[in-house]
Structures are given as C-alpha cells and as structure tokens.
Design goal:
four-stranded antiparallel beta sheet; 748 residues; alpha+beta; globular; 3 domains
C-alpha cells in the first residue's frame, strides 16, 4: 500500500466519522427532504412486501390504491444496496443507503483518476473531494441519483482501461459497474453518461498511444457496454414499460420539465459554499432564483475551494498554450463541464428546451441535475492541476494563488461569519500552496489533501442532517388515531394537497403513512411514476370533491376509504407553514366516512360513461349513490351486465400479488364484483379456474363479472417485463463470469 493510498483511506474514514457520526453511533437517521418525505416509507416496504409476496415484490398495495413496485425504478429493487434492507434491521439498512454510496463515490473517482494517469496523491485529493463534496452530499437525499452517480466515475475508469489494454477482466469490470448504474434507476444520470464517457476516452486516447489493437479495443469496449446495459435490464426493461403507462409517456410539459433550472448565479458556489445563502428553512435568495420553490434541487455545488482553484489553474494553463499535447485533455474536460452547465441552466438557456425534445429526454425533469457533468469535470481538472502544482509548476501555483486571493477578497467583502470562514480557508490554502515545494518528501501533497478534505467536510455537515431514529419511528398523534381505528381500507389525506412549505414530521403527507402500514388513496403523484389512469382518476375526483363534497365522500366510501385526514379549522398557517393551534397535538383531524365498502363487493348499479368528462358527469349525477355503483367506460361496458344482480363477496386471501374471493351471485343476471384496487394489465383474473376479463371501472379501479351462483374468484399479479429483464440480467451475469474465468486463464 502506498503512502498516498493510506492517506486516502485514513482521511476517508475520518470524513465519514465527522459527517455520519450521529447515524453510526448515536441512533440517528437521515431525514433531509425526500429521504423522509418518500424514501423512508418506500424502503420500509421492501422487506414487508417481499415477505408477503413470497419473493419479488411486484405490487405495492399501499400507494394510490395499489401501484407497480418492482417495475418502478425509484425503488431500485434489484440494486445490491436495496438488498441490505432484507438482511439488516431497517434503520441500519436505511442509513447505509446514504453512507455507503458516498464511500463508493470516493473510491470510484480515485479509480478514474488513477486510470487517467494521475498520481496517487492527486487521486486521493480528487476522490475525497468528490466523495464528500457538495454535489455528492447534495444527492444523498435523492437515493436513485446517489446510487447512479457514485459509480459513474468507475464506469469511465473501466472504459479507459478497456480502451488502453482490452483485458477481459476490465471488460467484466466495465459491465459490472455500468450494470450497477442502470440498476440504480436514475434515468437522468444514465442519459448523461455518454458525455463524460466520451471525454474520458478522448483523454485516454490523447494521453498516450494505445497498447491494444484499435479494432480489438473498440470491440471490447462495445462488449463491456452491451453487457452492462444487459446487466441492468432487470430495472431498465420494466421501467421503460412502466414509463409508457405514466404521465411521462407523452412527454412532460415545459413547466414540469424545466422546473429547477439552475440560475447562472449558482456558479458562485464553486468559490463560496454559501454565496447565495443556506438551504435551511429556504433561503430568501434561493426563493428569488427559483420562482415558486423554496430551495434549489441541488443543495450545494461547492467542490472545495482548492478544487476550484486548481481546476481553473489547469484550464488557464491549457488556454495559454492550447496546441500543447497535454493541454488537449484539459480542454476536453472543460468542454464537457461547460456543456453540463449549459444543460443545467434549463429554461435560462435555449439548449435544454431543444434537448428535451429528444426521445427519452422528453420524460425527464429538473435540468439542474446535469450540473453533475460540471462538478465531475472540475474534479478531473483539479486533479490535473494538483499534479502540476506538486511537481513544481510555477504557473499553476501562480494561477491557483490568484483564484484563492480573489476568493479571500470576496470573503472580506461579504462582511459575514461565512465570509470570515471563507477568508480563513483561503488564507490557509494560499499558505499551503506556497509551501508545497519547500516541505520534505510528499508532505506538501498530504497537507493539501488534508486541508481540502477538512474544507468540504466542514461545509458538508449541513447537507446531511439527522434526527433520532426512535422519533421518526414513533407514530405521530394523527397516525396513532388511525392505527387505533384499524381501518380496513385506504385513507385519504385531503390536507396532503396543501402546498405547505414546512409540514414537518406530524403532517405525514403520503406516502409517509405507509411506514406504519397505512394504505392511502387519491394522493399526489410524488415521482410521476403512478399509473396514468390512476393519476387522472385522482384529478377528476378532486374536481368532484370541490364541486359536490357529499359526492366526493361517497366516492371515497366506494373505494373503501373509512377515514379522511383534513386540516383543522383552527390550525395556524403562517408563511406557508402549518402548525397545531394552542392546546392541540396536531394541526390535522380525522373525518370518519362510514359505512364504507369492503375491499370487494357486488355493485348495485352500473353507469356507462365516455371518457373522463363522461365519468365526471356520471359521478355528479349519481351523487350520494356513487358509493354503491360502478362507472364503466363505454368500450368496457359490453362486458358488463346491463343490470347487475346483487350478491355477497367474501375475502378469503389477500397478499400483494394474490387475491382470492368467494362470491354468491343471486341472479338472474350476472353480478359485477368491484375490487377496490388499481387496474393494471398484468393482473389476471380466474373465475372457477377459467380466465376472465378484468374490467377497468371508475377510471382506475378493477372489476370482474361472475354468473349467477357460487364462484371462486382469483386475481394474480405477475409483471412479465420484470421476469424478462431478470432473464437478460442472468444471461449477462453468465457472460461476465465467463470473462472473469477467461481472464484467470490468461497469464499476467
């Protein structure tokens, strides 16, 4: 082990303890933004649904009256990090979803920089500032992005190694890390990967002549990339199919796609971490830069002041002599970073509106995420500058010192505590840069690495706040009341539609109630992966609830919802924040909607309608009788009886992927059994063992027709796209194993 690598490991451990000590030793867990609002509840379902389903958790009955689960890339069901939830206590499995990827990110960047010919010290510097820098810590509350971004540098590293040597082991490594990126389930990072991949390959090509034969190297590279995509098919294939059934299928409107476009002013954060304010509570400056939003999508872009200084120094040197051979890789990475900035600007620059017209990009949103390209490229440039500085480049020392000096002046001009801290950091770095050539051995390099890590860690602690896990696992007052009531059906959280800026732990906006096993219906589509007909049904229901509240309550009872959560009339609403009135333990209250229909029942009446407007008219026409009826679209109505007979339905078995009913249809006509669960094409119905058509009613629910008499009705869910994806992944794994076996037979 080299001294540089030992320093890398030691400082990495120290940084982890400084950032994650509360989670590692004090029983705390991560709570920032989506971690609490979405991922904590969603991840808690992984072991629960896997056990209840007896294997792959295809279906999730807790969200929006039931939604696909394994096919949803947000859940990363087939990623190894998710498997930790199956073997560890939930709290530890959930914490490691955040902690481990940051360590992987540091190691991944270290590998890339070494593959690009950087020294061990430069690789240690770049790996640590990337793994614990502003971008990586900002996406710790966006788990799919974190899981994908943490291995992206390793994808580039193995691609460079394949191009350089075309060894079977490197081809297998490329396939494995690209497969992990695909399994993470973040489409934006995956779509952005070709840009830094081309930059890394160009850098490798310009750095030195290829050892491998060109045709063989290109063929090996293509094989590794193909195997990597195939390895990720368990997530990619069902995700593509699911996307075609969601709101993303037709492309997102500009307002949705361009939300969280990065203002150009955020580039100041490359020099000063809090140049625009802090994210806690929604900084005023950020609200002005992001109309209608409280905070930026990425909480920070700060890569460390030394990273910015050395990256710019490397760029200045290359621009001064662009024809020099060693300048060309620098310009390649600078172009990649510049492209990332232009894309991240979103609606502030005409490039993103053009890109979003492309296939696959049309369903993506939040262009600020593409600042990934700029941050990654800057880290590579900084590693180049680091090596030049340590080797005694006067130009690099001069340019880096100038950038640090200007930053120090900015700190003085800001006249704030943050400015004073920035001044101190810049002063220490100026002294360290000036002393590099005068310290014995590599002490100067080690000092620079240590100061750079201290800088990013001191800033990063605000990006990964924690709270006691016991607090978040304890049901808040409104949840305790629901658990005491033991509802058989889902809960409708009416207050969840309020645009409250700070709703807090006790507000339990869906899908948070799922953490305690509470199913919900008619909630907002948090990640735009809800089935399109389910989302449309929600919008139409809200129209009914606003127009005729009594009819809205009847529709809720029709879905089996016995409870509605609503805001107390005396709750305090100040500045967009909601709080309980004096003497109350919650700003929320329950309204009980009884009697509600059971999970499955025979409808008394069928209303035929044409499309969503027809459904709306039919619902308003039915009024309070809507809770015993089914509204069937005209194309489906030919399968439904004109006047359904009454009957009784008994629920025999219900698991996430299997439902067994016993029905007694009184006749003389057939009966229509309404099932209060979202319809999906992969649900299959059997009546007495014979396949039957599963109808879609009320825009999004399910129903099955049974003839007079006693019958056994079975519904089962299997997603063939998941199974096909797993088959391709298995074949790709066999291919990787064959490559590794071949590599062992080849002498070194």
């Amino acid at each position: 082990m080299t001294r540089a690598f030992a320093v890398f490991l030691g400082l990495g451990l120290a940084a982890s303890l400084a950032l994650f000590g509360g989670a590692l030793f004090q029983g705390h867990t991560f709570v920032e933004r989506d971690l609490f609002a979405y991922y904590r509840a969603a991840k808690s379902l992984v072991p629960r649904l896997s056990e209840a389903s007896g294997g792959i958790p295809y279906w999730n009955p807790y969200f929006a009256s039931g939604q696909p689960f394994a096919a949803n890339p947000e859940h990363a069901i087939f990623h190894p990090a998710t498997w930790l939830l199956l073997v560890l206590p939930f709290e530890w499995g959930f914490r490691l979803q955040v902690i481990l990827p940051t360590l992987v990110a540091a190691g991944s960047m270290h590998l890339l920089l070494r593959s690009l010919g950087r020294s061990g010290w430069a690789a240690a510097f770049g790996g640590l500032t990337w793994g614990f820098g502003g971008y990586t810590l900002s996406v710790t509350n966006l788990l799919p992005t974190l899981l994908a971004a943490c291995v992206l540098p390793a994808v580039l590293a193995f691609a460079v190694r394949v191009l350089d040597r075309a060894r079977a082991s490197d081809v297998a490594g490329l396939a494995l890390v690209l497969g992990l990126e695909c399994l993470a389930g973040d489409p934006v990072t995956l779509l952005a990967t070709p840009m830094p991949l081309l930059a890394a390959l160009a850098h490798a090509y310009l750095r030195r002549p290829r050892r491998a034969r060109p045709a063989h190297a290109v063929g090996s590279l293509a094989l590794g990339l193909a195997l990597g995509v195939a390895l990720g098919s368990a997530a990619l294939l069902p995700a593509l199919r699911l996307a075609s059934k969601t709101a993303r299928a037709a492309g997102l409107p500009p307002g949705e796609s361009e939300a969280w476009s990065m203002p150009a002013a955020r580039m100041l954060e490359l020099f000063a971490p809090f140049a625009l304010g802090h994210v806690e509570g929604g900084a005023v400056a950020f609200r002005g830069l992001y109309p209608g939003l409280d905070t930026p999508f990425l909480y920070s872009l700060y890569p460390g002041l030394l990273t910015t200084s050395l990256g710019l120094a490397a760029l200045f040197s290359a621009l001064a002599r662009p024809g020099r051979r060693r300048s060309r890789p620098v310009l390649v990475w600078a172009a990649t970073g510049g492209l990332g900035v232009l894309l991240a600007l979103g609606s502030h620059f005409p490039l993103w509106p053009l890109v979003r017209r492309l296939p696959l990009f049309s369903g993506t949103r939040y262009p600020e995420r593409l600042a990934l390209l700029a941050c990654l490229a800057l880290t590579v440039l900084a590693a180049i500058g680091f090596d030049r500085l340590v080797r005694g480049s006067r130009a690099t020392r001069r340019d880096a010192t100038r950038v640090l000096g200007l930053t120090a002046l900015f700190g003085v001009a800001s006249a704030s505590r943050d400015g004073l801290l920035l001044l101190c950091v810049a002063g220490l770095l100026i002294a360290a840069v000036a002393s590099v050539g005068h310290l014995p051995g590599r002490a100067g390099a080690a000092l620079l690495v240590a100061l750079a890590v201290a800088d990013v860690v001191a800033h990063g602690r605000r990006l990964v706040p924690t709270q006691p896990a016991a607090l978040l696992s304890t049901p808040p007052p409104i949840v305790r009341r629901i658990l005491e009531a033991r509802p058989a059906g889902p809960v409708f959280h009416a207050a969840g539609w309020l645009k409250a800026r700070e709703s807090g732990y006790g507000f339990v906006r869906p899908p948070v109630p799922a953490f305690w096993g509470i199913a919900t219906t008619f909630e907002p589509d948090f990640d735009l992966t809800e089935l399109a007909w389910s989302a449309r049904a929600t919008q139409r229901f809200l129209q009914v609830l606003e127009t005729q509240p009594a009819t809205g309550y009847a529709l809720l009872k029709r879905r089996g919802a016995e409870i509605m959560i609503r805001l107390r009339r005396d709750a305090k609403v100040e500045g967009g924040a909601i709080s309980a009135p004096a003497g109350a333990d919650s700003p929320l209250e329950l309204r009980f909607l009884t009697p509600a229909q059971p999970f499955a029942f025979c409808v008394r009446r069928i209303e035929r309608a044409s499309g969503e407007p027809g459904w709306l008219d039919a619902a308003l026409r039915l009024g309070s009788e809507a809770w015993t009826a089914a509204i069937v679209d005209v194309p489906e109505s030919e399968w439904a009886p004109a006047a359904p007979s009454p009957g009784r339905v008994t629920l025999i078995e219900r698991t996430p992927c299997r439902i067994v009913l016993e029905a007694e249809a009184e006749g003389p006509a057939a009966s229509l059994i309404a099932v209060n669960q979202t319809w999906d094409e992969h649900w299959r119905a059997l009546v007495d063992g014979v396949p039957a058509r599963l109808l879609r009613t009320d825009l999004s629910l399910s129903a099955v027709v049974v003839p007079p008499g006693h019958h056994r009705v079975e519904l089962a869910y299997r997603d063939p796209w998941v199974l096909a994806g797993l088959g391709i992944t298995g074949a790709a794994l066999a291919g990787v194993a064959a490559l590794l076996a071949a590599a062992r037979r080849v002498p070194a």
